[in-house]
């Protein structure tokens, strides 16, 4: 049995990395849809959420695995609930 070192980040198995990427892309797409619908630029949303515009752009492109706190900040920046941003995420596939 392999011993896991608690303070050292462990790389994700490929199957979990693919699932994470799929969820991040779906979240980013939904974020962009809401931002565009509210006629906000990346910079405007970033300012309202107190985040950097480059970070928001990376989230929209599915490049960032963001924290619950930042999801909450983005939702507030869009005058939405965090639930609204999370609602259309893909269902988890059966364990591989």
Keywords:
single chain, 96 residues, mainly alpha, 57% helix, globular
Assembly type: single chain
Number of strands: 0
What percent of residues adopt helix (DSSP H or I)?
Answer: 55-70%
Q: Which shape, going by the Cα principal axes?
A: globular
- The SSE order reads HHHHH
Tally of DSSP helical segments: 5
> What is the terminal separation in angstroms?
21 Å
Q: Estimate the strand proportion.
A: under 5%
Uncertain parts: none
Alpha-beta content class = mainly alpha
Mean pLDDT, to the nearest integer, reads 90
Main sheet, how many strands, which sense, barrel? none
Q: Kindly provide the radius of gyration, computed on alpha-carbon positions and rounded to a whole number of angstroms.
A: 15 Å
Can you characterise this structure?
The chain has 96 residues and is mostly helical. It is 57% helix and 0% strand. The chain contains 5 helices and no strands. It has helices spanning 14-37, 42-49, 53-60, 68-77, 82-86. 10% of the residues are buried. The mean pLDDT is 90.
């Amino acid at each position: 049995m392999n011993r896991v070192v608690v303070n050292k980040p462990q790389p994700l198995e490929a199957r979990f990395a693919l699932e994470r990427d799929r969820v991040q892309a779906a979240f980013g797409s939904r974020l962009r849809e809401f931002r565009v619908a509210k006629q906000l630029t990346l910079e405007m949303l970033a300012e309202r959420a107190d985040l950097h515009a480059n970070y928001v752009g990376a989230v929209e492109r599915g490049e960032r695995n963001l924290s619950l706190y930042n999801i909450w900040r983005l939702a507030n920046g869009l005058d939405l609930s965090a639930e609204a941003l999370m609602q259309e995420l893909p269902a988890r596939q059966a364990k591989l």
